[in-house]
Amino acid sequence: MDPAATVQERVENMIVSIDVLCEDLMEHISDLESALDCRMILHVLHELGDIVWYQETRDFQDMVILDPKIALDLVREVINHYYQGKVCEAYDALRRDGTMQHSLLMTFSLWEALSNVDSEMVSRFKR
Fold it and tell me: Source organism's superkingdom (predicted)?
């Protein structure tokens, strides 16, 4: 990943369609003969923690997160101590009952970038 990449570029490059990824891998790796072989390799890479692919989860079975750090960074934007001292109704609700309003979530750079990748992407990650 390019260290100078914008947040948007980082998100766009790290979350890819399983079909597109397998096509690309089969095109560049001559010994990789089928999408099934590709999926088996991706399963092992997920088990090793090198990628994130929840093939058994309906919302995520069709995509691969190439850098698991991005999934952690999405969580870090929501769960952190930076809320202390912030004043607005959305932060008050968050502190009071742990409810994060969608409008507040969309102020975080990774979540905004995620929504720009695909209109349904934020909903998938919120579940």
Answer: Eukaryota
User: Mind listing the pLDDT tens digit for each residue in 66-95?
Assistant: 999 998 999 999 888 887 778 888 888 888
Which residues are registered as beta bridge partners of 17? Answer: 63
Q: Which residues contact 58 (CB under 8 A, 6 or more apart)?
A: none
The model's pTM is 0.81
Query: What would the 3-class secondary structure string for the chain be?
Result: CCCCCCHHHHHHHHEEEHHHHHHHHHHHCCCCCCHHHHHHHHHHHHHHCCCECCCCCCCCCCEEECCHHHHHHHHHHHCCCCCCCCCCHHHHHHHHHCCCCHHHHCCCHHHHHHHHHCCCHHHHHHC
